[in-house]
Amino acid sequence: MNHDTAKLNCEAFQAQLPELIGSGENAAAHPHVQDCELCRALLADLETIAEAARLLFPSVEPPADLWAQIESKIRSEEASAHAN
Ligand SMILES: [Zn+2]
């Protein structure tokens, strides 16, 4: 397993993740998620947040911007977690 390649795949996958979810695709079925524990965890976090968002805003489809905001928030949390 080449970790550099795996990381590249993660970045590519995470870049398209908001679009994937926004378009109604089953992101959990994506081949990268099947192979990548990191992105499975990320997706689980996103789904938890998405579920909370549905409870808060049951009649509103989350705009694409929201996914970008959620994603950047998770990334900043991960970045601060790594810093510790
Ligand atoms: Zn990944």
What does this structure look like?
14% of the residues are buried. The protein is 77% helix and 0% strand. The chain has one domain (10-83). It starts with a helix and ends with a helix. It has 84 residues and is mainly α. The chain binds zinc ion. Residues 9-10, 13, 32, 36, 38-39 line the site of zinc ion (ZN).
Topology:
Layout: H1 3-22, H2 31-35, H3 37-56, H4 64-83
Helix pairs in contact: 1-4
The structure holds zinc ion.
The average pLDDT is 80
Number of alpha- plus pi-helical segments: 4
Write down how many β-strands occur, each being a DSSP E stretch of 2 or more residues.
0
What general form does the structure show?
A: globular
Instruction: Find the structural class using helix and strand composition.
Output: mainly alpha
Classify the helix fraction into a percent range: over 70%
End-to-end Cα distance: 27 Å
- In terms of per-residue confidence, which ranges show pLDDT below 50 for 5 or more consecutive residues? none
| Domains (count) | 1
Q: What pattern of helices and strands is seen along the backbone?
A: HHHH
Q: What is the alpha-carbon Rg in Å?
A: 13 Å
Major sheet? none
Strand content: under 5%
List all distinct small molecules, including ions and cofactors, that are bound in this structure: zinc ion
